[in-house]
Amino acid sequence: KQEVTQIPAALSVPxxxxxxxxxxxxxxxxxxxxxxxxxxxxxxxxxLLIQSSQREQTSGRLNASLDKSSGRSTxxxxxxxxxxxxxxxxxxxxxxxxLTFGQGTILTVHP
Amino acid sequence: EAQVTQNPRxxxxxxxxxxxxxxxxxxxxxxxxxxxxxxxxxxxQIYYSMNVEVTDKGDVPEGYKVSRKEKRNxxxxxxxxxxxxxxxxxxxxxxxxxxxxxxxxxxxxRLTVL
Lengths: 111, 114
Fold this sequence. Notes:
The complex is a heterodimer of chains A (111) and B (114). Chain A is mainly β and 111 residues long.
């Protein structure tokens, strides 16, 4: 059974820092990998999708990498801002429709 | 406005009383899915649907039913709810599941089963 682990579970940083969130998965036979953001009391927002044939994706200050063979992905956030405070979730697509989530990293960026 | 709507948003019920949580999307998406979110366990997929009349199990389908008779609607049915189904439920949709970079999530339904 696919297991997705995210480290650290929580992270608190001052504004302006560059930071890295880690995600690992046990079965490398994934379809794609996706990063989401969840704000308190709300649904999820899609951030980046990395297809299994890709190594990385970028959107603004966010960069996600994928090393499928080692079962790892990282989400890099540059120049963090208080508005980046949220829970960040890594999820792997095991097939076209089946999605497994990690438990998330709670990020707090303080001014 | 593109959106996924869920109803009700909050529900308190008793063990064994059948209930349905509705999910509707207005984007003509083919893919829809249900998740539950629990402290310490994170988000877990219950069921998903690739298109009308096509549904499949996620990781935690026990105790739930779904149907996809129309493209826009994907209701979640609990025929005999139990306290361990107390949770926060999310519905989501996208154009084509894993190949789509944007998954649209509903606002969530908080269910309490007494």
